[in-house]
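Let us practice reading a record.
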Amino acid sequence: MSEVSTSPVAAVHLEKTAFHEERKAGSFMIGDVDSDGETSFWYCCPCPCGRIGLLNVGKNFKPADGPSWEWNGSLDAPTLMPSVHHVGHWHGWLQDGVWKSC
């Protein structure tokens, strides 16, 4: 984990094209919500590696199937529960729109 950032990183919501083109550390985009209220939370790792991760999230609930996270539904100040582990690069929390390392 040589590129790990220990400084807080702002979580910035981007639309699909900008998200994939910019690969800005800590940026995220949201997929379409399915009939169960679950969606995809795509994020660019908060460390400067530029790698993209995908989380299965529920808006104000934690989906039961597989690894999943509860998302507060905010695009301006997102919070995820539990912590996010981008294996080999970064581990921490997304709270009130800020990625914070453990």
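A brief commentary: The chain has one domain: 9-59+66-101.
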